[in-house]
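Marked as duplicate of an earlier ticket. Keeping the data here for the record.
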Amino acid sequence: MKIIVIGTGYVGLITGLGFSSLNHQVTCVDINEKVVEKLNKGIPTFFEKGLEDLLKKELSSGRFKANTNLKEDIQEVDLIFIAVGTPSLNNGKIDLSFIKTVSETIGKEIKNIDRFISIIVKSTVLPKTTDTLVREIIEDFSEKELGEFGLGMNPEFLREGSALEDFMNPDRIIIGFEDIKTKKSLANLYESWDCEKIFVNTRTAELIKYTNNGFLALLISATNEIAKISSSIGNIDIKEVMHGVHLDKRWNPKVNNKRVYPKIIDYLEAGCGFGGSCFPKDVKALIKYGEENGNDMKIFRNIIEINNDQPKTIIRDLSKVTSFEDKNILILGLAFKPGTDDVRESPAIAVVKELLKKDIKIFLHDPIAIINFKKEIGANSKIKFINNWLDQVSKSAIIIILTKWEEYEKLNYSNLSGKIIYDARRVLSKEKLYCRKYMSIGLQN
């Protein structure tokens, strides 16, 4: 098939290269000329494992290219995927301005084209966006009716750090459609994938995406609430508590008398909160959308409140055992999770902002996210970004681990005498450490 993907951000580029690698002809479109130029030279604009190699391979194959407009390829295209951003506004609603602009552009471009083209929304949008907003805009500017063009919604379930693997080996594919031709086109496109395909209308597809992220965020926040009880009582380790929960066969069944350890139990672990471009934005949008439709979204409002407070738990815990003044603090990990340079909504932002209120010097390290974190946090004389974090260990009174990068496991074998370690992601083995005090979320002795 010939495919256009509009948007070269996380979802758009992964989607475009994924389809290209399966022998489809793909053009990724972005209005930013510098981004397009970089992509056509084989330079991704964000980090993802294996992405640069795949980009160079697909460029060499001739199956993939980037462009700044639709005109060059739209005459022979079969599917147009909309994969532009839907950022969060201050009131929690999502900003649909990119969706509207792209829909208008598509409408104008297909106006004088006789070929049937299906437009598929890949961006994360709330119910009624595809079948109402996008449809009406395209119809207005194309002077065509649905049926003369196709319309669908195909949500993504990509995890940063394993996005390419998730794209190539999904556990399910949701195919939302508003016309039979689009249903058939998407069925053909995904025919080679060996997983369950669910065919629904576009509103259902849109809500599946939000429900999926909302439930995962709920698991994280519920675990963090139990961790607070664990801390307040003392002499309880939330990790041991949750291990007992994980072994319930409804979470973790046995197959051939061996535990499966499904990935869902990764979300039943205490930590310093979730971040990234999806969970915070999607839960806030779900709250606002529910309220606009007459529903009191109590549980989801509490999820956001719990998550916003979680990084502050670290500062409160440390304040109970030490003062911060005149101390060097080493923070390890700035990305919201390992395997990515994404710092959007990262707990490290909240932790650093709280620490900046105190008379201290903060040393910050991350293997790949320093540049993005600098842009997010801004310049401050109390902050120093470092590359060799091991050299700073001996000079720091407090060490806080906020991202579960494997390289930080080296602390297990370091001289930490007299130091306070706050391991918010349980990277270290507390049994191996010899330090003044080892602390974590849900662990206060």
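See parent ticket for discussion. DSSP finds 14 helices and 16 strands in the chain.
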